[in-house]
Amino acid sequence: MGKPSRNSLVAVCAVTLIYLMCVSQAAPPVCERLVHPLDQLAPHHFEGSWALVAGSLNHSPSMEALRRRDSITMYFSNSSEASTLSYTQINRFGDQCQYLRYNISAEGSTFTFDVQSRFSLSMYFLHTSCPDCVVMKWVVKSSRRISTDLYLLSRRREVEQKELEEFRAQLKCYQLPEPVVMDPTKELCPEQPENQPTAAAAPQAEETVAQKT
Ligand SMILES: *[C@@H]1O[C@H](CO)[C@@H](O)[C@H](O)[C@H]1NC(C)=O
Ligand SMILES: *[C@@H]1O[C@H](CO)[C@@H](O)[C@H](O)[C@H]1NC(C)=O
Question: How far does the signal peptide extend, from start to end residue (predicted)?
Answer without folding.
Answer: 1-26
